[in-house]
Amino acid sequence: MMRSVQAQECYDVARTWFAIIPPLLCPVSFLIDAPFGRFAPTERSILLFDGIKSWMVMELVSPITFVYTYLHSPLSPIYYGSAPPLSLSHPPTLLSTLYLFHYLNRAVVSPLRTPSRSKSHIIVSLSAVFFNIVNGSLMGAYLSSPAAQSFLGDAFTRPLFWLGVGMWVAGFAGNILHDEVLLNIRRSAKAKGKARAAADSDDNNNGKNKNKQEHYAIPHGYLYSYISYPNYFCEWLEWLGFALAAAPLPSFASAGQFLSTISPPYIFFLSEVLLMLPRAYKGHRWYHSRFPDYPPERKAIIPFLL
Protein backbone atom coordinates (compact mmCIF):
# COMPACT_ATOMS: atom_id res chain seq x y z
CA MET A 1 0.00 0.00 0.00
CA MET A 2 2.80 2.44 0.90
CA ARG A 3 4.48 1.98 -2.46
CA SER A 4 1.27 2.83 -4.31
CA VAL A 5 0.83 5.92 -2.09
CA GLN A 6 4.33 7.10 -2.95
CA ALA A 7 3.68 6.38 -6.62
CA GLN A 8 0.47 8.44 -6.41
CA GLU A 9 2.41 11.40 -5.03
CA CYS A 10 4.98 11.20 -7.84
CA TYR A 11 2.19 10.80 -10.38
CA ASP A 12 0.34 13.90 -9.13
CA VAL A 13 3.49 16.04 -9.21
CA ALA A 14 4.41 14.89 -12.73
CA ARG A 15 0.82 15.28 -13.95
CA THR A 16 0.56 18.84 -12.59
CA TRP A 17 3.84 20.02 -14.10
CA PHE A 18 3.10 18.29 -17.38
CA ALA A 19 -0.12 20.33 -17.55
CA ILE A 20 1.66 23.60 -16.70
CA ILE A 21 4.71 23.47 -18.99
CA PRO A 22 3.07 23.31 -22.47
CA PRO A 23 1.10 26.58 -22.01
CA LEU A 24 4.37 28.26 -21.02
CA LEU A 25 6.23 26.87 -24.03
CA CYS A 26 3.52 27.70 -26.56
CA PRO A 27 4.29 31.45 -26.92
CA VAL A 28 8.03 30.72 -26.98
CA SER A 29 7.47 28.30 -29.85
CA PHE A 30 6.05 31.13 -31.94
CA LEU A 31 9.43 32.87 -31.64
CA ILE A 32 11.83 29.94 -32.01
CA ASP A 33 11.89 27.34 -34.78
CA ALA A 34 12.42 23.78 -33.55
CA PRO A 35 15.49 22.67 -35.58
CA PHE A 36 14.09 19.74 -37.54
CA GLY A 37 12.20 19.21 -40.79
CA ARG A 38 11.94 22.32 -42.97
CA PHE A 39 13.51 24.35 -40.16
CA ALA A 40 16.53 22.07 -39.76
CA PRO A 41 19.94 23.83 -39.85
CA THR A 42 21.65 23.57 -43.23
CA GLU A 43 25.23 23.78 -41.96
CA ARG A 44 27.19 20.73 -40.84
CA SER A 45 27.27 20.00 -37.12
CA ILE A 46 28.07 17.09 -34.82
CA LEU A 47 24.76 17.92 -33.09
CA LEU A 48 22.73 17.00 -36.18
CA PHE A 49 21.63 13.39 -36.59
CA ASP A 50 19.98 11.25 -39.24
CA GLY A 51 16.34 12.32 -39.33
CA ILE A 52 14.80 8.87 -39.71
CA LYS A 53 16.93 7.07 -37.10
CA SER A 54 16.62 9.83 -34.50
CA TRP A 55 12.85 9.96 -35.05
CA MET A 56 12.48 6.23 -34.47
CA VAL A 57 14.59 6.28 -31.31
CA MET A 58 12.83 9.21 -29.69
CA GLU A 59 9.31 8.02 -30.58
CA LEU A 60 9.87 4.43 -29.42
CA VAL A 61 10.41 5.78 -25.92
CA SER A 62 6.69 6.48 -25.46
CA PRO A 63 5.28 2.98 -26.11
CA ILE A 64 8.12 1.37 -24.15
CA THR A 65 7.52 3.47 -21.04
CA PHE A 66 3.76 3.12 -21.49
CA VAL A 67 3.88 -0.69 -21.63
CA TYR A 68 6.23 -0.92 -18.66
CA THR A 69 4.06 1.37 -16.53
CA TYR A 70 0.76 -0.20 -17.59
CA LEU A 71 2.01 -3.70 -16.82
CA HIS A 72 3.21 -2.65 -13.35
CA SER A 73 0.09 -0.68 -12.29
CA PRO A 74 1.97 1.68 -9.94
CA LEU A 75 -1.18 3.44 -8.68
CA SER A 76 -3.15 0.30 -7.86
CA PRO A 77 -2.91 -1.32 -4.41
CA ILE A 78 -4.48 -4.45 -5.95
CA TYR A 79 -2.43 -4.84 -9.12
CA TYR A 80 0.74 -3.06 -7.92
CA GLY A 81 3.70 -4.64 -9.72
CA SER A 82 1.50 -6.71 -12.02
CA ALA A 83 -0.70 -6.16 -15.06
CA PRO A 84 -4.43 -5.39 -15.07
CA PRO A 85 -6.60 -7.74 -17.17
CA LEU A 86 -4.99 -8.00 -20.63
CA SER A 87 -8.12 -8.52 -22.69
CA LEU A 88 -9.74 -6.30 -25.31
CA SER A 89 -13.00 -6.75 -23.41
CA HIS A 90 -11.33 -4.70 -20.64
CA PRO A 91 -11.80 -1.03 -21.70
CA PRO A 92 -8.44 0.26 -20.37
CA THR A 93 -6.63 -2.48 -22.28
CA LEU A 94 -8.59 -1.68 -25.44
CA LEU A 95 -7.56 1.98 -25.13
CA SER A 96 -3.99 0.91 -24.44
CA THR A 97 -4.05 -1.04 -27.68
CA LEU A 98 -5.14 2.08 -29.57
CA TYR A 99 -2.28 4.02 -27.99
CA LEU A 100 0.23 1.36 -29.06
CA PHE A 101 -1.20 1.18 -32.58
CA HIS A 102 -0.59 4.92 -32.94
CA TYR A 103 3.03 4.58 -31.91
CA LEU A 104 3.59 1.46 -33.98
CA ASN A 105 2.76 3.58 -37.00
CA ARG A 106 4.49 6.74 -35.75
CA ALA A 107 7.71 5.18 -34.50
CA VAL A 108 8.19 2.22 -36.85
CA VAL A 109 5.96 1.95 -39.92
CA SER A 110 5.95 5.59 -41.03
CA PRO A 111 9.70 6.28 -40.72
CA LEU A 112 10.58 2.99 -42.42
CA ARG A 113 8.40 4.01 -45.36
CA THR A 114 9.89 7.50 -45.51
CA PRO A 115 12.38 7.85 -48.40
CA SER A 116 14.12 10.82 -46.79
CA ARG A 117 13.91 13.10 -43.78
CA SER A 118 15.90 16.23 -42.92
CA LYS A 119 18.49 15.94 -40.17
CA SER A 120 17.36 16.66 -36.63
CA HIS A 121 19.19 18.62 -33.95
CA ILE A 122 20.04 16.75 -30.76
CA ILE A 123 17.98 19.22 -28.69
CA VAL A 124 14.87 18.07 -30.57
CA SER A 125 15.61 14.42 -29.84
CA LEU A 126 16.36 15.03 -26.17
CA SER A 127 13.22 17.14 -25.73
CA ALA A 128 11.10 14.48 -27.41
CA VAL A 129 12.62 11.72 -25.28
CA PHE A 130 11.81 13.67 -22.12
CA PHE A 131 8.26 14.36 -23.31
CA ASN A 132 7.69 10.73 -24.26
CA ILE A 133 9.08 9.34 -21.01
CA VAL A 134 6.73 11.52 -18.98
CA ASN A 135 3.72 11.13 -21.26
CA GLY A 136 4.10 7.36 -21.70
CA SER A 137 4.53 6.86 -17.96
CA LEU A 138 1.56 9.05 -17.04
CA MET A 139 -0.73 7.42 -19.60
CA GLY A 140 0.26 3.91 -18.54
CA ALA A 141 -0.14 4.77 -14.87
CA TYR A 142 -3.54 6.37 -15.44
CA LEU A 143 -5.07 3.59 -17.55
CA SER A 144 -3.98 0.95 -15.03
CA SER A 145 -5.15 3.03 -12.04
CA PRO A 146 -8.23 2.42 -9.88
CA ALA A 147 -9.63 5.77 -11.09
CA ALA A 148 -9.55 4.64 -14.73
CA GLN A 149 -10.85 1.18 -13.86
CA SER A 150 -13.81 2.79 -12.10
CA PHE A 151 -14.54 5.39 -14.78
CA LEU A 152 -14.27 2.84 -17.59
CA GLY A 153 -16.17 0.07 -15.81
CA ASP A 154 -19.32 0.58 -17.91
CA ALA A 155 -17.54 2.22 -20.86
CA PHE A 156 -18.91 -0.17 -23.49
CA THR A 157 -22.47 0.95 -22.64
CA ARG A 158 -21.75 4.69 -22.99
CA PRO A 159 -22.18 6.43 -26.38
CA LEU A 160 -19.44 8.95 -25.52
CA PHE A 161 -16.91 6.13 -25.25
CA TRP A 162 -17.71 4.86 -28.74
CA LEU A 163 -17.83 8.40 -30.11
CA GLY A 164 -14.33 8.92 -28.76
CA VAL A 165 -13.10 5.64 -30.22
CA GLY A 166 -14.67 6.58 -33.55
CA MET A 167 -12.91 9.95 -33.48
CA TRP A 168 -9.64 8.17 -32.72
CA VAL A 169 -10.10 5.82 -35.69
CA ALA A 170 -11.00 8.71 -38.02
CA GLY A 171 -8.04 10.78 -36.83
CA PHE A 172 -5.63 7.85 -37.08
CA ALA A 173 -6.76 7.01 -40.61
CA GLY A 174 -6.67 10.68 -41.64
CA ASN A 175 -3.19 11.07 -40.24
CA ILE A 176 -1.92 8.14 -42.29
CA LEU A 177 -3.76 9.31 -45.41
CA HIS A 178 -2.31 12.81 -45.35
CA ASP A 179 1.16 11.61 -44.39
CA GLU A 180 1.03 9.43 -47.49
CA VAL A 181 0.55 12.56 -49.62
CA LEU A 182 3.78 13.98 -48.18
CA LEU A 183 5.58 10.66 -48.62
CA ASN A 184 4.61 10.59 -52.28
CA ILE A 185 6.11 14.07 -52.70
CA ARG A 186 9.35 12.85 -51.17
CA ARG A 187 9.38 9.70 -53.28
CA SER A 188 8.89 11.73 -56.44
CA ALA A 189 11.61 14.17 -55.39
CA LYS A 190 14.02 11.35 -54.62
CA ALA A 191 13.44 9.80 -58.04
CA LYS A 192 13.99 13.18 -59.72
CA GLY A 193 17.11 13.74 -57.63
CA LYS A 194 18.61 10.45 -58.77
CA ALA A 195 17.87 11.26 -62.40
CA ARG A 196 19.41 14.70 -62.05
CA ALA A 197 22.47 13.31 -60.29
CA ALA A 198 23.02 10.90 -63.16
CA ALA A 199 22.61 13.66 -65.74
CA ASP A 200 24.77 16.17 -63.87
CA SER A 201 27.47 13.87 -62.50
CA ASP A 202 30.10 16.52 -63.23
CA ASP A 203 28.43 18.97 -60.84
CA ASN A 204 28.25 16.94 -57.62
CA ASN A 205 28.11 19.83 -55.18
CA ASN A 206 25.29 21.61 -57.00
CA GLY A 207 23.32 18.40 -57.26
CA LYS A 208 23.56 17.83 -53.53
CA ASN A 209 22.40 21.29 -52.67
CA LYS A 210 19.36 20.96 -54.89
CA ASN A 211 18.46 17.56 -53.55
CA LYS A 212 18.35 18.84 -49.97
CA GLN A 213 15.39 21.08 -50.74
CA GLU A 214 13.77 19.03 -53.48
CA HIS A 215 11.35 17.09 -51.27
CA TYR A 216 9.27 20.19 -50.51
CA ALA A 217 6.33 20.91 -52.80
CA ILE A 218 2.72 22.02 -52.49
CA PRO A 219 0.62 19.06 -51.28
CA HIS A 220 -2.83 18.58 -52.79
CA GLY A 221 -5.89 16.45 -52.14
CA TYR A 222 -8.18 15.55 -49.22
CA LEU A 223 -7.96 18.12 -46.40
CA TYR A 224 -4.96 19.74 -48.07
CA SER A 225 -7.58 21.56 -50.12
CA TYR A 226 -8.49 23.48 -46.95
CA ILE A 227 -5.49 23.50 -44.59
CA SER A 228 -1.72 23.25 -44.73
CA TYR A 229 -1.39 20.74 -41.89
CA PRO A 230 -4.21 18.18 -42.05
CA ASN A 231 -1.93 15.57 -40.48
CA TYR A 232 -1.71 17.76 -37.37
CA PHE A 233 -5.48 18.38 -37.42
CA CYS A 234 -6.17 14.64 -37.67
CA GLU A 235 -3.80 13.93 -34.80
CA TRP A 236 -5.68 16.42 -32.66
CA LEU A 237 -8.94 14.69 -33.58
CA GLU A 238 -7.37 11.35 -32.70
CA TRP A 239 -6.24 12.34 -29.22
CA LEU A 240 -9.34 14.37 -28.41
CA GLY A 241 -11.37 11.25 -29.18
CA PHE A 242 -9.04 9.18 -27.03
CA ALA A 243 -9.43 11.60 -24.11
CA LEU A 244 -13.23 11.64 -24.40
CA ALA A 245 -13.26 7.85 -24.31
CA ALA A 246 -10.66 7.41 -21.57
CA ALA A 247 -11.26 10.04 -18.92
CA PRO A 248 -13.78 12.43 -17.37
CA LEU A 249 -13.61 16.08 -18.33
CA PRO A 250 -11.56 18.23 -15.94
CA SER A 251 -13.26 20.88 -13.83
CA PHE A 252 -13.10 24.41 -15.23
CA ALA A 253 -14.31 26.09 -12.02
CA SER A 254 -10.84 27.48 -11.27
CA ALA A 255 -7.22 27.04 -12.33
CA GLY A 256 -6.54 25.04 -9.19
CA GLN A 257 -9.43 22.67 -9.76
CA PHE A 258 -8.47 22.32 -13.41
CA LEU A 259 -4.93 21.26 -12.50
CA SER A 260 -6.14 18.89 -9.80
CA THR A 261 -8.71 17.15 -12.02
CA ILE A 262 -7.13 17.04 -15.48
CA SER A 263 -6.03 13.52 -16.38
CA PRO A 264 -3.15 12.42 -18.66
CA PRO A 265 -5.31 11.81 -21.76
CA TYR A 266 -6.51 15.43 -21.70
CA ILE A 267 -3.03 16.70 -20.82
CA PHE A 268 -1.67 14.88 -23.85
CA PHE A 269 -4.33 16.37 -26.11
CA LEU A 270 -3.73 19.91 -24.82
CA SER A 271 0.04 19.44 -25.13
CA GLU A 272 -0.39 18.37 -28.75
CA VAL A 273 -2.46 21.46 -29.53
CA LEU A 274 -0.24 23.94 -27.71
CA LEU A 275 3.05 22.57 -29.05
CA MET A 276 1.94 21.84 -32.62
CA LEU A 277 -0.06 25.01 -33.26
CA PRO A 278 2.99 27.34 -33.43
CA ARG A 279 4.78 25.01 -35.83
CA ALA A 280 1.71 24.73 -38.05
CA TYR A 281 1.31 28.51 -38.12
CA LYS A 282 4.97 29.10 -38.98
CA GLY A 283 5.01 26.26 -41.47
CA HIS A 284 1.93 27.73 -43.14
CA ARG A 285 3.75 31.06 -43.52
CA TRP A 286 6.80 29.20 -44.83
CA TYR A 287 4.70 27.59 -47.56
CA HIS A 288 3.41 31.01 -48.64
CA SER A 289 6.91 32.51 -48.72
CA ARG A 290 8.42 29.51 -50.49
CA PHE A 291 5.73 29.02 -53.14
CA PRO A 292 4.27 32.16 -54.79
CA ASP A 293 1.41 30.07 -56.20
CA TYR A 294 0.45 28.57 -52.82
CA PRO A 295 -3.39 28.49 -52.56
CA PRO A 296 -4.36 31.69 -50.69
CA GLU A 297 -7.64 30.23 -49.43
CA ARG A 298 -5.95 27.53 -47.35
CA LYS A 299 -5.90 27.97 -43.60
CA ALA A 300 -3.07 26.69 -41.42
CA ILE A 301 -4.62 23.89 -39.39
CA ILE A 302 -8.39 24.27 -38.80
CA PRO A 303 -10.58 24.34 -41.93
CA PHE A 304 -12.17 27.76 -42.59
CA LEU A 305 -11.00 29.15 -39.22
CA LEU A 306 -7.26 29.15 -38.50
UniProtKB/TrEMBL annotation:
Membrane topology: Multi-pass membrane protein
Pfam families: Steroid_dh
Gene Ontology annotations of biological process type: lipid metabolic process
Keywords: Membrane, Transmembrane, Transmembrane helix
InterPro entries in the record: 3-oxo-5_a-steroid_4-DH_C, SRD5A/TECR
Residues spanning the membrane: 122-143, 155-177
Domain of life where this protein originates: Eukaryota
All copies of domain 3-oxo-5-alpha-steroid 4-dehydrogenase C-terminal, residue ranges: 120-192, 209-306
Subcellular location: Membrane
GO cellular component terms listed in the entry, alphabetical order: membrane
GO molecular function: oxidoreductase activity, acting on the CH-CH group of donors
Family stated for the protein in its record: Belongs to the steroid 5-alpha reductase family.
Protein name: Uncharacterized protein C9.08c
Organism, as annotated: Grifola frondosa
